[in-house]
Amino acid sequence: MSNNPVTKSITTSVEGRDLIMERVFDAPKELVFKAYAEKDHLEKWWGPEGWETKVMAFEFKPGGEWRYCMTCVDKNQGDFFGMESCGLAEYQEISAPEKIVYKDSFTDKEGNKLEMPEMLITINFEDHEGKTKLVSRTQFATEEALQQVIDMGVEQGVASQFKKLDAYLEKLQ
User: Fold this and answer.
1) Cα-Cα-Cα-Cα dihedral of 18, 72, 64, 104, to 10°?
2) Closest of 85, 82, 60, 64 to residue 72, by C-alpha
3) Mapped to the 3 state alphabet, what secondary structure does the chain carry?
4) How far apart are CA 33 and CA 169, in angstroms?
5) In a designed cystine with 99, which of 40, 41, 81, 95 is the match (CB 3.0 to 4.6 A)?
């Protein structure tokens, strides 16, 4: 596995009400896609470092849903320790192994949507010099909603999550 810093870094940009995050993974795109497409894989890497994810429902197909809750298990994260954060992904489009499109919402433990910004997320998996370039484009209803999620630390959370995915992909190869 490469320790090339370019491979390990995340690039973030904003275009209007879209947040674009890109990262290169040292794994074939079929494997990176599979890490998103299967419940057992998602539970092992989804969420920021120090958080564990439990999948409550998972149907990976257009019109299907993925419902999950994350719990902070790291005592070093202070006030976050023990906190739960739940979400619902409603799959719109899936084209293996190139693309996943889903609507993402924050929910309570029962799956009821919270008054938080909904996001339309498009993830593209591209071949890149023997590796996989993952491009995530998250569209918000307004620029204010985008700013609210940025202020909540979405960039740091995704960077941390991608670090976990990177480590998990290394174990699978």
Assistant:
1) -20
2) 82
3) CCCCHHHHCEEEEEECCEEEEEEEECCCHHHHHHHHHCHHHHHHHCCCCCEEEEEEEECCCCCCEEEEEEEECCHHHHHHCCCEEEEEEEEEEEECCCEEEEEEEEECCCCCECCCCCEEEEEEEEEECCEEEEEEEEEECCHHHHHHHHHCCHHHHHHHHHHHHHHHHHHHC
4) 11
5) 95
pLDDT at residue 4 tops 50: no
pLDDT tens for residues 50-99?
Answer: 999 999 999 999 999 999 999 999 999 999 899 999 999 999 999 999 99
- How many other CB atoms are there within 10 angstroms of residue 127's CB atom? 12
**Predicted model pTM:** 0.91
Residue 33 has a pLDDT of 98
Amino acid at 130: G
**C-alpha closest to that of 149 among 90, 68, 87, 69:** 87
Residue 106 tokens read as 């924050």
The average confidence (pLDDT) of the chain is 92
Residue 86, number of CB atoms within 10 A of its CB: 21
